[in-house]
Write a structure and sequence with these properties.
Layout (H helix, E strand, L loop, with lengths): L1 E5 L10 H7 L4 E4 L10 H8 L9 E6 L3 H8 L6 E7 L9 H14 L6 H9 L5 H12 L3 H13 L3 H4 L6 E6 L7 H10 L3 E6 L5 H4 L1 H14 L1
Parallel strand pairs: 1-2, 1-3, 3-4, 4-5, 5-6
Helix pairs in contact: 1-11, 2-3, 4-7, 5-6
Length: about 230
Amino acid sequence: MKLILLPGMDGTGELFSDLCHTLARESTPVIVRYPSDKKLSFYDLAELVQGDFPIDEKFVIIAESFSVPVAIICAAKNLVNLKALVLCAGFATSPIKGASRYIGYLLAPILLRLPLPGVMYKIWLIGRNTDSMLLSKVKNIVSSMRKNILIDRVNSVFNCDVIEEIGKIKIPILYIRAKNDRLISKSCYNEIKNASSNVELVEINGPHFILQKEPIKSAKIIMKFIENV
């Protein structure tokens, strides 16, 4: 079965390398990459990625963080060969609520144009106990993004609401949650669970970038889920 991987906010898919290496032992992973120079909504991206879906082969979508709304939109169309959906550390509505979202609107265009210190990546994304190679890789990928695209994608998160699409999904859904995620709280999973009776939850100790910190453990969980579909 083919596995279609939708990337995080960077859109490159480069952070999937370790996960794909493990998944490739039992399946065929395909990484979708987003245009680096176009401002696209979640619905625009959902339309775009369908060009990478196999026409005559069964497949599963694996979406990380920023791409979870994209995957939800795609799955809501109930494509014939789509057999399951894996959502990791993601959301269906903006994970930032109330006054914090308003403050985010004001500060994001300013802060995102500045270089982030390594400690911020460790606190919010990859965890404090992270080797220098992963930290360097994440910093390089984020810093290579065009600032206007990064800001636009962050604003998309602030405005996200695809909760109604979840009720249309008929296939099984696996939600992988990082227990130490500082960006996406458990309430994001609860929203998705309340909108669908087809959701299974698995929690892993680790930070927001759980697929990067625990690629082997994540791959085993994903493959076990797919085998039971």
